[in-house]
Specification:
- The complex is a heterodimer.
- Chain A is an alpha+beta fold.
- Chain A has 20 helices and 10 strands.
- In chain A, strands 2, 3, 4, 5, 6 and 7 form a 6-stranded antiparallel sheet that branches. Chain A has a 4-stranded antiparallel sheet with strand order 1-10-9-8, with no helix packed on it.
- In chain A, a hairpin with a 5-residue loop joins strand 9 and strand 10.
- The longest helix of chain A has about 30 residues.
- Chain B has one domain: Glutaredoxin, CATH 3.40.30.10.
- In chain B, the strands form 2 sheets. Chain B has a 5-stranded mixed sheet.
- The chains are: A alpha+beta, B alpha/beta.
- At the A-B interface, helix 10, helix 11, helix 12, helix 13 and strand 1 of A face helix 1 and helix 3 of B.
Amino acid sequence: MVTELGHFALITALCVAIVQAVVPLIGASRGNTGWMQIGGSAALAQFALIALAMAALMHAYIVSDFSVINVAQNSHTDKPLFYKITGVWGNHEGSMLLWVFMLSLCSAAVAVFSSNLPPDLRARVLSVQGMIAVGFLAFILFTSNPFLRTWPAPDNGNGLNPVLQDPGLAFHPPFLYLGYVGFSVAFSFAVAALIEGRVDAAWARWVRPWSLASWCFLTIGIALGSWWAYYTLGWGGWWFWDPVENASLMPWIVGTALIHSAIVVERRDTMKSWTVLLCIITFSLSLVGTFLVRSGVLSSVHAFAVDPRRGAFILGLLVLAIGGSLSLYAIRAPALKAGGLFAPISREGALLLNNVLLATCAATVFLGTLYPLFLDAVNGPKISVGAPFFNRTFVPLMVPVLIAMAVGPMLAWKRGDFGAAMQRLYLAFGTCVVLVLVLLYITTGGPVLAILGLGLGLWTALGVLTEYADRIRLFRVSPQQSWRRAKGLPRAALGMTLAHFGIAVTVAGISVQAFDQEYLGFMQVGSDVKLAGYVLHLDKVERLQGPNFTADDATIEVWRDGRLVATQHPQRRYFPLQDQTTGMTAIRSGLVADLYLALGDQDDQGGWTVRAYWKPMVSWIWLGGLIMALGGMVSLSDRRWRIGVAAKARGGRIAAHAAVAGE
Amino acid sequence: MKRALYLLPVLLFLGLAGYFVLALQPGYDPHVLPSVMIDKEAPAFSLAGLSGDGISREGLKGKPFVVNFFASWCVPCREEHPLLMRLSEKEHIPLYGIAYKDRPEDSRRLLTQFGNPYRAVGIDNDGRAGLDFGVYGVPETYLVDGSGHIRKKFTGPMTAQQVQQELLPMLKDLGGS
């Protein structure tokens, strides 16, 4: 009964979405206020209906209603309640429902927070949001309906894929989707602006917080996914350039470019058509990401839906959404007038450089991900570009990005003084050079590139801190005055400092990975292995019984300097229902280094495959991601985004604000 | 002219969509890898050795042998590594390695760290030999008979089962173990 209610709510949501897509658009073109306002109510109604559908599916999972095919295929009575709930989006149908739920959430948020938007722009934005919803609701109802029943109901379900039964993965999709879907708002604003033929500072002031929020969620989603891969897959790797990982990285890179170029539109009224294009591309890449994962065009561990019919449907949606918006762009964008001019060495120039480099990065990842497929399409050889390709192309592109990141924020708008900016950075530069030389001397014969990477991370960090210190006039005025200045600094400026600092932390973490140490081999029970100053002692391996698995649980003592530091328990779990084995790594995590233990197969002489890694500063990689996201959120809390402020600030205030923030 | 520039994004996208249409045709399955090399003569290769002698097709011909493409940057190769170690230590199979698109010092580091299961290792830094063999991704393993013909190809890390049920019996039939 509850399931049917959810099913019905979803069908009704589709009808409401059609209304939301059509009526406000016609209203906006005819100037009919009543029709335009339907967009807002429709968005709210749609959100309520999809939330109901989501709750109904969740209910079916919680009570283990196995007459629902989706529940029978993906759940089991033995499963812990937490994973019954997260199992809702651990499968194709449910994850698509989560996707449209997020979309309706965004539309509803636009409807609620857009009272100060010009009514025709608001109507058009909501209409485009409605069109996207129509596409995806139809996709769910016609090809991937989670509410279908089966009779007779099976006695018990097939359970969830044990690899997916994990806290990291439980939260990874919601964040990732919120990021993907959030960019739909920027997309809708871009399409609405193209229809109106008008892009101005007010438009950018609207697009930026949405893009920034989506970017924060995407950052967290990617970091969680990478962390999950790190501790689950048992190889100590944290990024594999897997097509699906790349699919989430591409919108992140372009989205990063977008949140920067939108600043230029907002402050200087230029780079407009480029920013509109970025809005379209960011969301398009999110859609392509969904398509790649869902259609099985790319095979990968992540793809839990391989069905050509679904692929064809999503492809149709892609062609309509991306092809349509890009065609509109080709027709309307040339009419967008560029505003203020700027010298190459200026804040705008630095942001333009950032955009060019980031766009190139995204293109590189795009090529590396799809090129093997293209070669294959023209009957060429099947090749794998793999990590070497990305290391040789993506990494060198990041170097100028990082170098420029320290200098860019110090340049003035319109025309900057490069020499003056460098003068403020000579201390940072000197420190980096000294550190790099010292480290090179200590680790002679070691990985040179890693040291240079570390130096680059330090340069970025020091550059960011120097800029911040300059702003609060640290050491030049009294500490009390500096503190007052720090408190008075706009949150957007603090957000930038944090986000850029986060990048530095991640870069440092990545660079240092070249110094990791690993052991891989067969260990007899009672034997010792030395790794990075630790002695690992395999004490025993026991058979344990879990709720829906049996586990081989190893007890490994970690000794250092004759002292027992820790006792770790890496496991291998066997899930009889799925006849599947997964590893549970045991990680001793810290800011200095992780000690990572994974248990493998047993060999015929009673030995166990043990993989042990000492990974210095590896947690910095994700920590940096969190700092970036935090920076984004701090920036979002800036008072100029708050309702009403933007409208009031149209006068002289924003100019004064901009001069202080200079961000 | 400037207008044409604005058309570029949509044109690029249409090319991409065209490819996706092609890829979604029934019968196209990205999981199935072409096996055109089976029962064909192994491509000629002559590679410098990682340590000591190099390897070449002519040099290995005469007796069946197993070629394993690997790289230090390849995660699944590490998964396969303990199995290879056991194959060479316990079964004494004629296993040769080709370090695919890998810097020699990195390959060397890998083998000193985890042990070297190969009788000899050839350096294929530019991926030329891999291209000739039609390597799709590393690791890949080829079983070549005494006359130099490829008899079997394993894509991705071999499993203990594949080794017991396919590789070892086939190698035995060819008179190579």
